UniProtKB/TrEMBL annotation:
It comes from Paenibacillus glycinis. Transmembrane segments: none annotated. InterPro entries: IolE/XylAMocC-like (IPR050312), Xyl_isomerase-like_sf (IPR036237), Xyl_isomerase-like_TIM-brl (IPR013022). It comes from the Bacteria. It holds the Pfam family AP_endonuc_2. Gene3D superfamilies: Divalent-metal-dependent TIM barrel enzymes. Residues 26-291 form the Xylose isomerase-like TIM barrel domain. This is TIM barrel protein.
Amino acid sequence: MANPLRNKIGVIVDSFGVGVREGLLKAKDVGAEGVQIYAVSGEMDPALLDAAARRELRDRIDGLGLEISALCGDLGGHGFQDAAANPAKIEKSKRILDLAVELGTTIVTTHIGIVPDDRNGAVYAAMQSACDDLGRYAKSMNAYFAIETGPEPAAHLKRFLDTLGTNGVSVNFDPANMVMVTGDDPVQGVITLKDYIVHTHVKDGKRLRVVDPRQVYGFLGYEQMSHERIAEMASEGPDFAELPLGEGAVDFDAYFKALQSIGYEGYLTIEREVGDRPEQDIRKAVEFIKRYR
């Protein structure tokens, strides 16, 4: 690359599989500058973190010299496709964003469910209404809910985002999801979604055969989405495989160059959802990105 990368490197703490406190230490040890943390259930559920616990967590992260690149607020299931379930999910998402801002980040990443092709249907309307509400709330706090790429082609996601009243719902760009599931080109995807990208994942993988995204990410009438099931599919299934950086189909030379071309200055956050040696894989991923600096 002609110009060295200046982006900070993040790691999803949960990828280590050892809990938040130990995961923070491991993130520091592998050379990350920031961390993304799941904040949906368990020890990071906003409902279980009182003011003192939030201060203690922020002090712990600051004390390690780390930042939070984003929280993950992915509620799974059918995303925001089910209008009846949306009020509770919207409320929970807002509380996760409150926590994010209190911990010093302005980004919560999420999956909203696959955006359907039918723009006049009930599912599209439910998703649009939920995202409009969330976007306005995020915007009021100078923050973002960032939809992870992969369930639909970038151009289709952009058309949906363009219908919303604000850019408070934006994009967490994951190149591997696109390569593995929709077969979309991540480099063109970056250009297409350039006005919305606020956070990125660095992950690699390859597509083994054409798969219906609804079988992966869920859809009303199909199974609900779960990260556990996706990880199982990515490690043992016949459809796609998540791989260590540089071993899959993501062209990182071109991907990083595309991010530079749109002026993206945010985090490159490493995600590793499969494999029995996550720490080793993440350490190698940090070194992989550092070669571009």
